[in-house]
Structure formats: C-alpha cells, structure tokens
Amino acid sequence: MKQRQIHTFSVEKTSVFKEKLLSYYKEEKHLVYLESNHGNQKYDSYSTLIGVSALDRIQCNAGNAFSQLEAFRKKHHDWMFGFLGYDLKNELENLESHYKDLLDFPDLCFFVPELVFEVQKEGVKLHSFMNSQQAADQLIKKISNHQMEQVKTVFTKKALIAKDPKIKYLEKAQTFLDHIHRGDIYEANFCTQFYAKDVNLNTQKAFKELNDISEPPFAVYARFNNNYAICASPERYLKKIGSKLISQPIKGTAKRSQHVLEDDSLKEQLLYDPKERSENVMIVDLVRNDLSKTAVKGSVAVEELFGIYTFKQVHQMISTVVSQLDQRYTALEAIKTTFPMGSMTGAPKISAMEIIEQNERFKRGLYSGAIGYFTPNDDFDFNVIIRTILYNEKNKSLSFSVGSAITAAAVPEKEYEECFLKAKALIEVLNQQGISFD
C-alpha cells in the first residue's frame, strides 16, 4: 500500500498562509478546515488541520450508515475528514425525524483527502503521496504567492425567518417543563431555527468574520460538494487518543461584559448558578453512562467539573469526562454508543430525543451533529455542531439553529434570551435586516 510522505516547511506568517490556502482551494469540492485558534487547550493535537480533495468518499443517510462507514474505514487505513448528522439517532435508536432538511445535507459524509496540512506557529507539515520534495515545495510556493480575492459583502441582505415566534417558543418551553414536572425527563435541549431562502453567501468571508468575532477552539470551515458548514463551536464532542476517550460537554452560558469587574462577576455567577450547575451535572452523568458502555471497568472519571472558560462572546461551563476504551470495542463503537452527544439531547437521552422531535419544527440535520477527522491509526476528534451557519449553494438556502437546556429550574423567558445570546455572532456576520416569522 502506498504510504503518505510528510514534508515540512517554514512560512513567514502562518495566519496569512492559512487564509491563502483556503482561498487557493476555493473551488475544491471537498475540504475540511479545523481551527483551534490558539491551539493551547488541553488535549489539542493540532493547532490547525486541513483535509483537501477527495480520493474516495462515502455519503449516506440513516439506516446502515455506520456499517457503511465501518467498511469504508477498513478499506482505507488513512486520514478521513467528515461529519455525522444528528438524525443518525434514527439508526441508533427506535426514533424518527418528521421534517425534511431544508438544506438537504446527507446524514453522514466522509472523504479520504488527497492532501492533509498541519499548520502550527513554527510552520507547515504536508501529508501527501508526493514523493518529490520539489513538487511539495512548488505547491507551498503557489499557495504562498496566491492573490486573494477582495470581497466586500457576505450575504444577500434578506430578513431571516424564525421558525418559532417568541410566544410559540415560550409555549413549547413550557411543554418541556410540563414533561419534566411529570417525571418524563430531567432535562432536554430545546432548539429553534432561523433560515433564509434565495440567498448568495460568500462562505469564506463569512467564516473569517465569524471566526474573528468568536475565536472558538473548534472552529470549522467545511465544504462537501454544494453543502457548507461555517462553524464557531466551543465544544468538543469526543476525542480518542490511543485508548483514551475524552468528552467535554458544555452546559451553562453567560454573557460577557466590556468592564473587567462586571465580567468577573458574570463568570462567578455562572459558576455558582444552581440551575447551570444542575444541568451540567445531569449531562456529565449521562456522558459517564455513555462512556461506560465501551470502557475498561472502573476507568470512567470526571477530570474537571464546572470548569469556567471564557470566549470572545460568552463564558461557558465545561466539564471533562474521560475513559479507557476496552480493546473489545472499535473507535466507531465508541462513537455509536455516545452519539448524539448528551449536551444536545437531554436526560434520559431517548425520552428527551422523542420529546424534542415532537416539539421542534425542523430537522436538525448537521446541527447538533459533529465534524472532525480520523487519523491513520484510528484516533479521532469531533466537535459539536453549534454556533454554525449551514448553507446549500445549489438551492441557495441557509440556516442556523440555537438552543438551551430546559430543566425544572428553567424560566422560558430567560431561555429565549439565551438563544439570542448564542445567535448574536451569527446574526452579526449575516448582517441581516430583521427577523420575520414562519
């Protein structure tokens, strides 16, 4: 089997090189750009990782998608980049999705890239099948000398359409509370969608602006044929390093302030807020239970509980749960037993997903799913698709969705405000002129 070669390069400014690389491959049909921004989070393996061009690919919907992916992994012991859509839940459990995805994303898509770029502060590593150092040098030189197009506008200005007017959102939030008070569930992540049709989106400019506003640790720019994901996610779904699994669910959000003392106060309020701590610990318990299904006995542990992390837009409460993968189980089995992630579903998970399906008026699709990569030695890392603009270039439709956790202590009005706090950066990037209602 032909082996990839690794070529190493120094570049003058890696930030400029990354922008030029994206622009250079603008017309490439398959590209996943994973950006950690600062590259100093615990468990980060790469600062920036980019997969370009499909040597082979798999695309399918829920039914037997995971078995198809398993066969694809056995065929290719190589790098793979791709996504898992939320509605794969229908394959993993006896569940259904009642709505059609406006953007027509498949439920699963992965590709084996022709080129893999690692970009660190000190330079670039290129994983490719090029044997010639000269050929690799020429490619890096072409990218470095590429002239980027100057684009002024991101979005055809149109009003976004909200699936749930405020009064409807509040009614549905109360429905979730009713289920909680009856004991059907303890918590559920209730989401709502904003969308626009007949629009043109400059996806690369949108990504740059969203990333500059947010600087999250799990940012993504991805293209799969006509489908794009422009993602400012702060959350890791699941990572595998050797036999170690790491999940870092987020539950708990607070706004930022420009005033230092007030900002510190908001962080402290988040840390000690009983509602936020309650929802965080419920999901930590759910993740512990999920990981235990494939773990070496006694290896599931909570490394950090109620960690407060600050991003440009918000403060977040993040916990870290780890386990050792029992050698009887594959990497994909670790994903299947934990997907969809607890932070985007609820507890108990199956009941929460059933109630979510009854109340949300849209198919989540890629939202609440995950984008990431597999390495040749079967390690992987996937984020949670939140704070994300999804776009279908062919049918000229875009959407983004936001949600919040409903617990017994939830106040519907505050949950509605939290949704708009999470949507703030997305609305700002789209520079929309108002919101109308479906």
Shape: globular
Structural class: alpha+beta
Outline the biggest β-sheet.
21 strands, mixed
Low-confidence stretches: none
What is Rg?
21 Å
Question: Would you mind describing this structure in some detail?
Answer:
This protein is α+β, with helices and mostly antiparallel strands. Helix content is 31%, strand content 32%. It is built from 11 helices and 21 strands. Strand 9 and strand 10 form a beta hairpin. Helix 5 (166-182) packs across helix 11 and helix 6 crosses helix 11 (412-430). The relative contact order is 0.19. The model has no long low-confidence stretch (mean pLDDT 94).
Keywords:
21-stranded mixed β-sheet, 438 residues, alpha+beta
Write the layout of secondary structure elements.
Elements: E1 5-9, H1 14-24, E2 30-35, E3 48-60, H2 65-75, E4 80-84, H3 89-92, E5 108-120, E6 123-128, H4 133-144, E7 160-162, H5 166-182, E8 187-196, H6 203-214, E9 218-224, E10 227-233, E11 236-241, E12 244-248, E13 250-255, H7 260-272, H8 274-292, E14 301-310, E15 314-324, H9 331-336, E16 346-347, H10 349-359, E17 370-374, E18 380-383, E19 388-392, E20 397-406, H11 412-430, E21 435-437
Parallel strand pairs: 7-21
Antiparallel strand pairs: 1-6, 2-3, 2-9, 3-5, 4-5, 4-17, 5-6, 7-8, 8-16, 8-20, 9-10, 10-19, 11-12, 11-18, 12-15, 13-15, 14-15, 17-18, 19-20
Helix pairs in contact: 5-11, 6-11
Q: How would you concisely characterize the structure shown here?
A:
This protein is α+β, with helices and mostly antiparallel strands and 438 residues long. The protein has helices at residues 14-24, 65-75, 89-92, 133-144, 166-182, 203-214, 260-272, 274-292, 331-336, 349-359, 412-430, and strands spanning 5-9, 30-35, 48-60, 80-84, 108-120, 123-128, 160-162, 187-196, 218-224, 227-233, 236-241, 244-248, 250-255, 301-310, 314-324, 346-347, 370-374, 380-383, 388-392, 397-406, 435-437. It is built from 11 helices and 21 strands.
